[in-house]
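lol ok so funny story. i was supposed to be doing the assay writeup but got distracted and ended up predicting the structure for this chain instead. priorities right. anyway since i did it might as well share w the group, maybe its usefull for someone
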Amino acid sequence: MIKGFVSKFLNSKIYYYIVMAIFFVLWLLSFLSVNGKLSEDILNKCEWIAMIFVGGSILALSILSKEIDPITPFIAFTPFVFAHPFYVINMPYPLFLGIGCLIVGLILHQIIYKVPFYKGRNFIGIAVLGFAMALGGIFNKQEYSFIQFGACLAIGVAITYLYFSLSKNTFDFTKVAHIINALGVFLVLQVITYYYISEDTMDALFTKSLDVGWGISNNVALMLLLTMPFTMYLAITNKHIKQFAFYFIFTLEFLAILFSYSRGAIASIALGLLAMVPACFFITKHKISYAVSAVVLVALMLLAFRVLYVRYHEYYERFLDYVSRINMGSYNGRRPIYDEILVAFKEHPIFGSGMFSPFYNILEEGVGEYQWGHSTLLHTVLTMGVSGVLALLYHFYEKYFYLVKKINKEKFLVLVAFITSGLYGMIDVSYYFINYMIVLIVILATIENLINPKEVPSEVL
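and the output, tada:
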């Protein structure tokens, strides 16, 4: 009886939101500590508690559950529980515990349940991209090292193995949508918390200052581009109160992108909405409630903006000035970065300068920051050269081809998520940002049954 209850709970949709709520509380305590609202000791304690919770849960679920579905939210949410920034080369020690438990858990799951190996549709592209990361900069003697090769190869293998392990299982798309929607709620709560604890909420709201620890405004906006279409899917497939609730979450995600001040993300979601809103009207079976919900939420947003305009006119003008200020001459300050990338490419055209080359002084002096290429393609050119670009393009081929083939409403909305975040990646880097990559791998793996239902072996169920 207890076993049946636990199994039913782990396969319920509420389970994902409970896991998300626990992650949010752990992040909240850490975030308050970082911002001086709580003792500094709490930060370290919360990170260890979070990773013990993650590691212990993954190990237990991997051993006790034949289905791998229950550990998926832990994988998707973990990168967002950290309330301070870090890079691959200076990861917090607790994170190694979580990663170690994940690897051990997946191996034990394979040994215990002998799940047949299954090469998903996106497997080759991900594996090739991971290998290209390891080879990046191999002829750049100044920057390349065995440590870099080992680290990049380990990351590539880990990402490939994660995809491989998850894609062996058949996921119901509605579950996938709930996991990604729960992540969207997690991100919205983080954004609200940031503005709420700011000394001057209105000033923070109308200034590009958003920082939730694991990422800044652009990073948050990028992730929300990925979550919004999944929330829309839940909205159009439900009705009445549930439908309105998902539309409300969708609206909050949109507002969070808007107040991230990320012009690339705002432009991307504007194009995404032009595709999603009319298409979903024809897709949904609940057209009247869809239209009513849309009208009510748009009216509430317009009313809110009107109030902001009247009461905080100065801030409102500042917001419009910043968002509309685009310097095409320097590509908003990106021109020097692009020029530097092209110079580096001429020196190392085949394998690039290496994934670690943009770290500058961090490795030697422990200070500085990672210099992103402000374009996924150009960052690939810088770090992996022509070989990396070819690997990335092949991965894109697999990623989009099987979604376009025999498209349906599920594939359409996943396609919107990938395209909007991909458009953003044209003027900033989406790939190689570890939070984005992990969620992307989770999505690609869990939609395997959607893009290739007939060839998933029945014995994995």
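The CA atoms of residues 4 and 360 lie 54 Å apart. The chain has a mean pLDDT of 81.
back to the writeup now i swear
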